[in-house]
């Protein structure tokens, strides 16, 4: 256990205990927690606190991050029991003197807080995350595909997805079903199906219509509750299912 | 069978079962609870052909809905080709078994083979 | 811990403390579904005793028409009502009914699909199940 109380006293009147899950699959048999006393201000994010620990106390803490502004989707982790982006979660809003950070559930652990994203990218790729049509706007004589603001409104919310994986981590089906395509990919399937420029609706609906596809979503809504970008995957999935049940065309 | 077809059947059997089970329960409530379980009353119910048909329908609808629900839960708990096949066929077999067993009661009682 | 997929498992699936009433409704739906299937199988066996004639039927009734049997039946009534009402809510949701319309999200990004209509549906299912259970108890013990 490492203590950092001296820095906390000098720089800030407030400090919290940051509990970081440590686990190296190649060496450790089980996860353990290391505790650090970290100073914070009103605006300090959990990611900044973790980086503070890396800088001053233990450089070996493994964490993935990049943009620090909730755009890259790299720093998803379980913070005080719920999946959140570390760069988008202020310590002050957690309302707790102890902040526990763990790797996201339902993702294999690389080390400590860093997890593997292969499956998320695979399922994302599986639903054809691109405009599917025979013609193209890239030829010299073709015009760009036109779209009205109303048509844009049908999918733009779902285009906000940053592939952070928080929805997959919160999903109760993903907690036990390792073959489930997951809320992230399903919401993206809706994003393209609802796009007026896309012609691949039928093939996409076919892809997700299997025993571990869209029907394994039971509308618990946990995915939408943790989404840091307002994508609301639960809505997208139900609207997508509406096509399959004949409620939408 | 495609999963969407199975799930449409799941929803359809649910809605139909709700309507028929409501009738079944209301029929029980037309009299005193203890009286409704009397041997003669129950026998008369089985011998009344429209009611017997309704019981048979409820049996089929709830068996299909119930065992498909169980299949869904089991498929989500564990994965693997063999396991999933065993679950699907196991639930199907259990469903047919229950329907056969329940139908035997309805048909034999209706035909007076008691 | 093994180098597996780090799945949260059944404990995480049923944990109702983190994701609000929708998650509670999710596992209550499962639990009531399994309970109703078990009851249904038992009920088919129970009613098959009619084939044993009056004596056989009455013998079996003596086994089921007890205080414990009545309490069990009251729980079944509650499960049945919850599963039905919540099932209709979920089915409507699955069809895209009452889940909101896609729109540009604004901070703090409250999800439109987790709206008051569905919350009212869940609470209604729980309240109606409780009322039906109490009514069932009154009918069964009131005689």
SSE topology sketch:
The complex is a heterotrimer of chains A (249), B (114) and C (143).
Chain A: H1 5-11, E1 15-22, E2 32-39, H2 46-56, E3 76-79, E4 82-85, H3 91-94, E5 98-102, E6 109-111, E7 114-115, H4 118-126, H5 149-153, H6 166-170, H7 183-193, H8 201-208, H9 222-226, H10 233-245
Parallel strand pairs in A: 1-5
Antiparallel strand pairs in A: 1-2, 3-4, 3-5, 6-7
Helix pairs in contact in A: 4-7, 7-8, 7-10
Chain B: H1 3-28, H2 33-36, H3 39-47, H4 49-77, H5 81-110
Chain C: H1 9-14, H2 20-47, H3 53-64, H4 67-94, H5 116-141
Helix pairs in contact in C: 2-4, 4-5
What structural keywords apply?
heterotrimer; B: 114 residues; mainly alpha; 3 helical TM bundles of succinate and fumarate reductases; 5 helices; 0% strand; C: 143 residues; 70% helix
How would you describe the overall organization of this protein?
The complex is a heterotrimer of chains A (249), B (114) and C (143). Chain A contains 10 helices and 7 strands. Chain A has 249 residues and is of the alpha+beta class. In chain B, helix 1 packs across helix 4 (49-77) and helix 4 (49-77) packs antiparallel against helix 5. Chain C contains 5 helices and no strands. The model of chain C has no long low-confidence stretch (mean pLDDT 93). Chains in contact: A-B, A-C, B-C. The interface between A and C is large, with 56 and 43 residues.
Number of contiguous helices of chain C: 5
Structural class of chain B: mainly alpha
> The CATH topology of chain B is what?
3 helical TM bundles of succinate and fumarate reductases
Number of strands of chain C: 0
Q: Unreliable stretches of chain C, pLDDT < 50, 5 or more residues?
A: none
Strand content of chain B: under 5%
- The level of helicity of chain C is 55-70%
Instruction: Give the largest chain-chain interface (CB within 8 Å).
Output: A-C, 56 and 43 residues
Order of helices and strands of chain B: HHHHH
What is the CA-based Rg of chain C, rounded?
21 Å
- Low-confidence parts of chain B lasting 5 or more residues at pLDDT below 50? none
**Which sheet architecture does the biggest sheet of chain B show?**
none
What order do the SSEs of chain C take from the amino end to the carboxyl end, as H and E?
A: HHHHH
